[in-house]
Design brief:
The chain is α+β, with helices and mostly antiparallel strands. The chain is 31% helix and 24% strand. The protein has five helices and 16 strands. Strands 1, 2, 4, 5 and 16 form a five-stranded antiparallel beta sheet that branches. The protein has a five-stranded antiparallel beta sheet with strand order 8-7-9-14-15. A three-stranded antiparallel beta sheet has the order 3-12-11, with no helix packed on it. Strand 14 and strand 15 form a beta hairpin. The two termini are 31 Å apart. Bound molecules: 2-amino-4-trifluoromethylsulfanyl-butyric acid (MF3) and cobalt (II) ion.
């Protein structure tokens, strides 16, 4: 069942989504070589609790941390650990909160130092593909239109691997609601979009082949070929004409640009 949110509920969800954005901005401030992802996880949990919310990933189906931090060839669901980050690493930080009963869940990939032009292009194109998907999150369309737009921009245009095993999802009082939102598919297929659902759209795109495997910890998803993978995620409310993006990358990007340790790319902006 798809849950259609009232405008009051959408505003509460905007608060939750923006708390995730603010938390990601805190991460953007401190990222540099030498920091460990476990230190980041602690900072994330503390910031969320200081803002009257709880980290939703902690204990979710037994997940043991407050964030998923996925470095280089880790696609998603990486465990924070004591390994210091190094120059040239890329790091996807995925954070979920529950505030006033409503979930926020979004993610951003940062480059610490220069990971090289091929990986910087992967970051740029994956971010662009997220916005191409969001353009299709409008009433009257279908879930397959979002999926097709992401796949078209990444796999067809650049030959990247689109991960099949993991998908985006509806979001609300639960972390995972209907519908599933794959990053691959056909136009005009899948659930019909009406105004009101909130979707977590989250392309997971590999520099090399699309195949992935899960490590023996039961969570960490890695590329089979050990080439880099990038993950961006926004929470958006389906509307007529144009989707309402509840999470806010501008808060994160403002800190990313100020941090001399981070490499940045300019993705194509949303047409307005
Ligand atoms: N953002 C991810 C998702 O949408 C993370 C959830 S997995 C968790 O599925 F266990 F860490 F919560
Ligand atoms: Co998600």
């Amino acid at each position: 069942m798809i849950h259609y949110k009232t405008s009051t509920e959408v505003e509460l969800m905007r608060d939750s989504a923006r708390l995730v954005s603010k938390t990601l901005a805190e991460v953007a401030k401190v990222l540099r070589p030498g920091v460990t992802t476990l230190e980041l996880d602690k900072l994330i949990a503390e910031f969320i609790r200081d803002n009257d919310a709880i980290p939703s990933f902690l204990n979710y189906h037994g997940y043991p941390f407050s964030s998923c931090i996925s470095v280089n060839d880790v696609v998603v669901h990486g465990f924070p650990n004591e390994q210091p980050l190094r120059e040239g690493d890329i790091i996807s930080v995925d954070i979920g909160v529950i505030k006033k009963g409503w979930h926020g869940d979004h993610a951003y990939t940062f480059a610490i130092g220069d990971p090289g032009p091929a990986v910087m292009q992967l970051i740029r194109v994956t971010k662009e593909s997220l916005y191409k998907g969001i353009e299709k999150a409008v009433a009257g369309g279908r879930v397959g239109d979002i999926a097709y737009a992401i796949q078209e921009h990444t796999e067809k245009k650049y030959g990247y691997g689109v991960v099949r095993e993991l998908v985006g999802h509806g979001l609300g009082k639960s972390l995972h609601e209907e519908p599933q939102v794959p990053n691959y598919g056909r136009r005009g297929t899948g659930a019909k979009l009406k105004e009101g659902p909130v979707l977590a759209i989250e392309p997971m795109i590999n520099l090399g082949k699309r195949e992935v495997y899960t490590e023996s910890d039961g969570w960490t998803v890695r590329t089979n070929d050990h080439k880099a993978s990038v993950h961006f995620e926004h929470d958006v409310c389906v509307r007529k004409g144009q989707a309402d993006i509840l999470s806010d990358y501008s808060i994160i990007e403002a800190e990313e640009i100020l941090n001399p340790h981070l490499f940045t790319v300019q993705a194509a902006p949303m047409p307005s």
